[in-house]
């Protein structure tokens, strides 16, 4: 036997209650919309893969590839060696330090993915490079964008009394590493290829 509950005309209090609930639902949006949107945001925010190499835990696979490149060229490097206070008091921590080998000055290196920089970010690195070039007689600041095989780069610094502030064209980029490593063009190319093909998934050293 089916039980039927009698229906009564709605009271003013019930009408007001339902009206408030409808407004609340309208403000909240469709049911489950917020959790779904939050999940989509999490999916679309791609994070760099932390990568271990030579006892270091790099913030991205790209940084680890540059470490492989530096090793193949025989550079003495440190990862996140020292931080600075740039103009305006903002803290800054470069990714790498390529140490002075007695014939070539210290060079700080910032590694970025190969995509256009935001104006604020570009201005920040220019300030860092300019501050380093003005504060120390023999030092450099290299900003790379992309992996070693096809990176764009900017070099800031003072080398032999001559200051460099600006982008490196392809020949300048290669010449920088030729001068630093004292190796040949083929060595630079082979180091860049080794960096790109390095595998880190199973604890390989690159």
Automatic annotation (TrEMBL):
Residues 14-25 have a biased composition (Basic residues). It comes from Neptunomonas phycophila. Gene3D superfamilies: 3.40.91.30. Residues 1-27 are annotated as: Disordered. This is Restriction endonuclease.
